[in-house]
Automatic annotation (TrEMBL):
Keywords: Amino-acid biosynthesis, Kinase, Methionine biosynthesis, NADP, Oxidoreductase, Threonine biosynthesis, Transferase. Its cofactor is a metal cation. Residues 152-350 form the Homoserine dehydrogenase catalytic domain. One of its GO terms (molecular function) is kinase activity. It is an enzyme of class 1 (oxidoreductase). NADP(+) binds at G10, P11, G12, K13, V14, G15. It comes from Christiangramia lutea. This is homoserine dehydrogenase. NADPH binds at T93, K117. The active site is at K221. Residues 10-144 form the Aspartate/homoserine dehydrogenase NAD-binding domain. Signal peptide: none annotated.
Length: 357
């Protein structure tokens, strides 16, 4: 039997779904792979539950009754004290601060898995420094769910690139929430604000939906893919069309924004009125390697096209390379939601497990 010790940061929609999936797969993993996944820490932004012997599968009730306020140095002390073999820290937060702690986690002996896209979209200096520290400490950093949730985009692209295949262009719908929003809004007589709320309840939007509507989430995904094929790009170089009207942009707090989302209705009706009968609205990402351009924008797309046909919260990625010149390699499927994302993080745990003894 091989034991992997897990520390989960961010038991929100994705994180708690992951814990549910881990609990229900416990016996299957032991029998089929000889693998024990032992959860030794669950922490949100203020409270942590620690148990070196393993947190029970009904972690939720223990978290409510026994978690304690913590500072990050206590986590480091805990890891240093117990020297857990095969320790993997999982970031299912949406925090912009937490990724700065990855260095300390790695130095305390941990591998990292991130659903959070922030670490891969900070400055190039941060990106490269993190990889240097990982290499020095012989630790893995895996983040398949950063793009396309549970769809195998990052690894596919990396394998193409590492095998020497020249990637020339990537184009597609990279946002599950915007996909759901435009699929629903284009075809149903519902107010935009209602559709946006639904996308939140279904777990498709970021905790702060402005990250999706401003195009920032798609911009981040484009940058992650560009860096995966070793293009040295910064976030500021991504050309992004924001869908947030001027009066709600910039200085509004999240609370204010959420209380004023009905102001989006008129704004999005204007987009809808421009749509022709056989068209749908699509918010797309496009990376042109030759031009070195990264762009996120709203377009009108024929319903009959590959991009036009996607449903629900689907993503679609068309990857053009030397070999896939005329007919791109296409990956399509559910591109957001706690269930598929948690399953993707689970896959990352198995990927790291295979590399460890
Ligand atoms: N929902 C989806 O379809 C997908 C989500 N993701 C990413 O997964 C992440 C989580 O998304 P959700 O579960 O929807 O968010 P959520 O808001 O439901 O959960 C985030 C959790 O992180 C905790 N948290 C915040 N700061 C923290 C810190 N410093 N330390 C520890 N915990 C902290 C919060 O208390 C909360 O429990 C985000 O980064 C998102 O971009 C990635 C792919 C798909
Ligand atoms: N908010 C994101 C979730 C996955 O990354 C999206 O809408 O795609």
């Amino acid at each position: 039997m091989k034991t992997i010790h897990l520390a989960l940061f961010g038991p929100g929609k994705v994180g708690s779904k992951l814990l549910e999936q881990l609990a229900s797969s416990e016996e299957h993993l032991k029998e089929s792979s000889g693998l024990i996944l032992k959860l030794v820490l669950v922490a949100d932004s203020s409270h942590a539950l620690l148990n070196p012997k393993g947190i029970k599968s009904d972690w939720d009730s223990d978290f409510k009754s026994s978690s304690k306020k913590y500072s990050f140095s206590e986590v480091e002390d805990y890891f240093n004290k117990h020297q857990f073999k095969n320790l993997v820290s999982i970031d299912t937060t949406a925090s912009i601060d937490f990724p700065h702690k990855y260095f300390d986690l790695v130095n305390a002996g941990s591998h990292i898995i991130a659903a959070n896209k922030v670490a891969n979209t900070l400055s190039l200096e941060f990106y490269e420094r993190l990889r240097k520290v990982l290499k020095k400490n012989n630790k893995n950093f895996v983040y398949e769910t950063n793009v396309g949730a549970g769809l195998p985009i990052v690894e596919t692209l990396r394998n193409l690139h590492l095998s020497g295949e020249k990637v020339t262009r990537i184009r597609g719908v990279f946002s599950g929430s915007l996909s759901y929003i435009f699929n629903t809004f284009s075809s149903e007589q519902k107010e935009f604000s209602k559709v946006l709320e639904e996308a939140g309840v279904l777990g498709y939007t970021e905790p702060d939906a402005r990250i999706d509507l401003s195009g920032k989430d798609v911009g981040r995904k484009l940058l992650i893919l560009a860096r995966e094929i070793q293009l040295k790009k910064e976030f500021e170089e991504v050309k992004i069309e924001s869908l947030i009207p001027h009066q709600l942009n910039g200085d509004t707090t999240l609370e204010e924004f959420n209380s004023r989302i009905s102001e989006l209705n008129g704004h999005f009706e204007k987009y809808k009125s421009k749509q022709l009968k056989d068209e749908v609205l699509r918010y797309i990402g496009e990376l042109d390697v030759e031009k070195g351009s990264l762009e996120a924008k709203l377009i009108r797309e024929p319903k009959a096209s590959a991009l036009g046909q996607i449903e629900g919260a689907d993503n679609i990625f068309e990857i053009y390379t030397e070999s896939y010149k005329d007919q791109p390699l296409v990956i399509r499927g559910a591109g957001a939601g706690a269930e598929v994302t948690a399953r993707g993080v689970f896959g990352d745990i198995l990927k790291i497990s295979e590399r460890l003894n």
